[in-house]
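User: Predict the complex with flavin-adenine dinucleotide.
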Amino acid sequence: MKRVLVVGAGIHGLVTAVREHLAKNQVFIVEKRKRIGGRGTSEESFGHQLEHGPHLLLKGGELHNMVKKVSRIKPSLRPLRPNKVMIVGHGMLQPLDNPKQMLAYKLGKDPIREDAVRLISGWGQDIPERSKALMKGRLCVVGEGWSGIVGRLASTLEEVGVPIQTGMKIVEQNEKGVVTSKGIKIEADIVRMCDGSPVGDAVKVSTLDVVLDNRPLKGLHGLVKGDVAILNLAAIHSKKAPGMSHFSCIALSGGVQAIEDLLDERVSGWRSHIITKRHNNSITITDSRGQLSDGVI
Ligand SMILES: Cc1cc2nc3c(=O)[nH]c(=O)nc-3n(C[C@H](O)[C@H](O)[C@H](O)COP(=O)(O)OP(=O)(O)OC[C@H]3O[C@@H](n4cnc5c(N)ncnc54)[C@H](O)[C@@H]3O)c2cc1C
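Assistant: Here is the predicted structure with flavin-adenine dinucleotide placed in the model:
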């Protein structure tokens, strides 16, 4: 049995800790913030869970499998349907009723649709397996939100007695272990850095999450224009703001303004129906396939 110290209690840190526990090691997690979950958290506001931009879980992917393994009750997933996502001025993301457009996309002769698929499946990263999963309806909205996934991992760790120390920042790593910002030395045989540092190429994106008291887009799952995407979580999953709209939006360029411009263009009057709203002007996403760390999983 080895003493394993995990630095960071984001999704990567929590999953790493579960894995190390399953490998029969003695595990301890240290997190600099008061809250766990890192970028995988949501905040409750007026009874709604608002995340940092849209998150879609790959059904059958690594994170989904881990969550299924540790939980008795399966997470409730609903797929984003590509035939219900509209590319402004170009048709549906998956134009089921238009075989000519479908063929052009399959033959690689539709760059606008290809860009839109890349945008929604990898938030700017080119991840062929996620693009395929999107078109097959395997990218899903999680009913309980990303924070629910975090909660499941955290309660598993609590059950098996893995401690999570919050409010403790690691500033140094050496051959004996780590040192905290208060000068406390913690010894460990292995240190796993899961601090969310970018792995691979990173993109900076902007996000906006907003709940409206009406349903201007009706059953539409999403809207795409250029490198801005608006997903309507309420149309995808019945647990999200029933009878209302829950838009989770992302822009690869142009900031939050680009998202608001698209809402102004396609969802007239949305500002007078806001129940709650939150935005983030600069958030990092990187692709680190296979590492289940900082990136689209
Ligand atoms: C807008 C957006 C959309 C996304 N969409 C998807 C998606 O659809 N599907 C998907 O799978 N993924 C998606 N992701 C990616 C997913 O959110 C991240 O992969 C995941 O949350 C990153 O987890 P992490 O644990 O690697 O990093 P983080 O969540 O950043 O966690 C790192 C943790 O380490 C702590 N920490 C840092 N430094 C220290 C230190 N020195 N000492 C102690 N603690 C420290 C931090 O406080 C933090 O809690 C998206 C991300 C964003 C931003």
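The CA atoms of residues 207 and 280 lie 5 Å apart.
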